[in-house]
Each structure stands twice: as C-alpha cells, then as structure tokens.
Amino acid sequence: DAQSERYRPQFHFSPKAHWINDPNGMVYYKGTYHLFCQYHPESSVWGPMHWIHATSKDMVHWQEQPIALYPDSLGYIFSGSAVVDVNNTSGFGKNGQVPLVAIFTHHNSKLEKTQPEQVQYQSLAYSLDEGKTWTKYAGNPVLKNPGITDFRDPKVRWYEPQKKWIMTLATKDRVTFYSSPDLKKWARESDFGSDAGAHGGVWECPDLFPLKHNGKDVWVLIVNINPGGPNKGSAAQYFLGDFDGKNFNAYSKQTKWMDYGTDNYAGVTFSNTGNRVVLMGWMNNWQYARDVPTPKWRGATTIPRELGLKEANKELYLTSTPIKELDVLDGKITSLTNVDVKGSSDLTAKTGGKYDTFKLTLSAPATNDFSVVLANEQGNELVIGYDKSANTYYIDRTKSGKTDFEKDFGKRMTAPRLSTDKTISLTLFIDVASAELFADDGLSVMTGIFFPNQPLTKLSIKSATGTSISKLTYTKLSPSVQ
Ligand code: FRU
C-alpha cells in the first residue's frame, strides 16, 4: 500500500509487514550477523510476541528469515539475548557442535489477572544449525520469578575472569545480576539502581559490557527506561563503573543518556564481536509506536553504532558513532568548503541534492547558531541545528508533515552539547523518514523519525547571526533493502 511504503527505510532493517519492537538476540557467528526482533506476525500493532529473524554479512544489508521463536504454553516470547556457547557449557551441542543459545523472557499472559508477579520468567532455546532453527529447552523456565511484576529482558555475557555467565536482568526499578556455570542454573549476585539514575518509568532491556579507557576496563551499564526519557517517552540511560563478577559499582549515580532523541529504544549490543561493541535500537517510542502512519508495517532498527568512551570537560561519556561498514552505501559525494551563510543558503543545487536518503557531514564554529533544514514544496520541514545560547543540539519536527497522531510528536527535541571543542562536527544520516544525528564524535546523539507529506529533498543551511561552514559533504546513499 502506497501510504505505508512511502516511509519505508532504505538502509535500515524493517519487517516486510506487521509489527516489530525491540531488537533481540543479536549475535555474530561464522561470518553472519543475526538480528531478531520482538514481532507480531498477525498485525501491525503489538500482540503475542514472536522473534522475527534477519541475517546480514555486514550489519547493513539485512535479509528477513523465517520466524525463529513462537509463543508456547509458557507464554509469549519477550526480549532477550543470544550467546555462542563455545565451550558447550549448556551441553546442548552434540558431536562437537557449538550451540547458539538464546536466553529470553517468557511472558505468561494467562497469569496476568490472578498472579501478576508470576507472569515473567527466563527461558532458553538453542540452535545447532548456525541460527536457522531453534529448539526450546525442555527444562524451561531456567529462572523462575521470585515475585517481581517486571522481571525481564535477560542480556547474557561470558565473564572470563571467573569463567561464568552473567545475566543482567531488568527487575522493575533496578537491574539484578545473576550468574551461571551452564546457562541453566542461575544464582543471584546483586542488584543495582533502586537509588540511582532516572526512574520516570519501568527499567527494561539492560546491557552490561566493558570498554577500554586508557588501557583499563570501564564497565558500561545501559538501562532502557519507559517512560521518563529526556524528551518524553522511552529512552536509554547508562552508567559507567566497575564490575567484579558480582557487583556493579557506578562511578556516579547520576543518569547519562546514550541518545537524547525520542527514537532509539531498547538498544543492546551484539555478542561475540570481540572487543568491538556495536549497538542497534528500535527506532521508535512507546508514546506513539502504535500510531505511526505506516499501517502495513511498523518499526525499524537504528543504524548500527559502534560504542566507545570519550572525555569531555573532565567527565567520561559513552559515545556512539555509525559503523564503518555503512560506507558501502556511499554514492555520489559532493564536498563544499567555506560556505558562508547569512540568513539562509539553499544548497539543493550545489550538492546535487534531491534525495531523501543521504549522509551529511559538516564542521562549523561553535560560536554561532546554525541549522540544517530539510524541506519540500509543501512547506514541510525538519530542522536539525545547534542553539548557541542554550548550548544544545535539536531536531525540530514541528512542521515535519504528519504529526497529529500524537500530541507531543510535532515538537522540538534537544540534547546538551557536551564537547568544549571550538569546532562542531556533525554527521547526519537521513533515510526517508528518520534522522540520526551524531555530534562531536558521538558525544551528543539524537535519533528522530518523521513523516513528511512528500519527500524532504530540499537542503538549506540557516543562521540568523551568520556563520561559515568550513566543510560540508553531502553523500547520496544507495538502498540496502533487497
Ligand atoms: C521493551 C519491552 C520489553 C519487553 C518487550 C515486550 O520495549 O517492553 O521490556 O520484553 O518490550 O515486547
């Protein structure tokens, strides 16, 4: 249907039809990246959850595969993770085969009314054919509910110093860490967060992993939260700290936000990618996910982002930057230097623009306001800019087209600028109906979806005070969707 297809992303994963939410079970194995997502194969709104499956050689070109996990007598298949059980600790591998093991939440809706604190528990499924087909473990569930209504989204990783698995689980207003020798028997280690971070909503989809900083491990704990995000609805906060196989000790109990935009939720990282840490989120927000104007399919993932650490103003922050592999999409590149802007400069002709899938990078002095305006003949516009007096970046959807499906959609969202560099550098990915902004080497990140009435193919730079863009490149991006 034309209405649904005109917002179809061209280089992001989206389901051919029907509803997706959280990315699940992302794992790299034998040259293939696997992505699963929360999926309702019968409608384009949320319902009994399955795991849809997609595979890729580069995290950029995704191919939809048959559904991996179906609901069963223990419940719907909620979010979770997958690991490569190299040592066959689970014993699922036969004749030297390495099992892929998925650890997920079963959500038993039959118990919602009578025993709400028993609805969610953790279970396993395994694959012995490199992720093609999955068998549920006969001993499910492997982690029963101790009486907590929100008890879900297990993210499991191997903790080499103590040769055990660590599960990071969202348990209502905190995360709880469990450990296991074999993925089947789990012991509670500790919890974190009832007195830390943002608590505007329930904690969901956590992740825990180390990143190197000055030769030392810094542990990152990502905690998605809904609602209570910095620009309303769902968002991803994180903490930095130490982890010793039992406790997570945060350097600070204050929340930091991985992405200030409204549309990067439930993001977690791939397993088995070595020292490289790559995250993808669900490019949507629970505030309006059910109502976005794509009635035949709903939901897409963000571009994959490589995570790192960087200091700014004596604070350490998590950074997100587009993965290198995305360069495969690069088409014609136009580079401009020293573009003087006073008022408004239309760059559509100069950049050979007229596309609605492109990448824009630019460098500009941090001493002046400026904005990138994407527009069409109908007067729809999406404005992405820097506000000098507030020292914030913003994405403004006020006039972006269809906004009335939710009252807060057509607004300006903001992110603080954390860098103190004199020059601002921005990278912006536009894919028909989404904008992903990476500022200052990924220190300030914003993701926002939008629904123009016609494609936004006009590009201009505005600056009321005047500015000079020292370098600007406009790269047409080709579709990766098969
Ligand atoms: C997050 C979430 C998870 C849950 C899943 C259900 O978006 O609410 O906590 O497992 O979605 O679809």
Automatic annotation (TrEMBL):
Origin superkingdom: Bacteria
GO MF annotations in UniProt: sucrose alpha-glucosidase activity
Residue intervals of the Glycosyl hydrolase family 32 C-terminal domain: 335-474
Cited PROSITE patterns: GLYCOSYL_HYDROL_F32
Any single Gene Ontology cellular-component annotation: cytoplasm
Record Gene3D superfamilies: Exo-inulinase, domain 1 (2.60.120.560), Glycosyl hydrolase domain, family 43 (2.115.10.20)
Domain Glycosyl hydrolase family 32 N-terminal: residue ranges: 12-318
Keywords, sorted A to Z: Glycosidase, Hydrolase, Signal
Gene Ontology BP, a term: sucrose catabolic process
Family statement drawn from the similarity comment of this UniProt entry: Belongs to the glycosyl hydrolase 32 family.
Stated name of the protein: Glycoside hydrolase family 32 protein
Organism listed in the record: Spirosoma validum
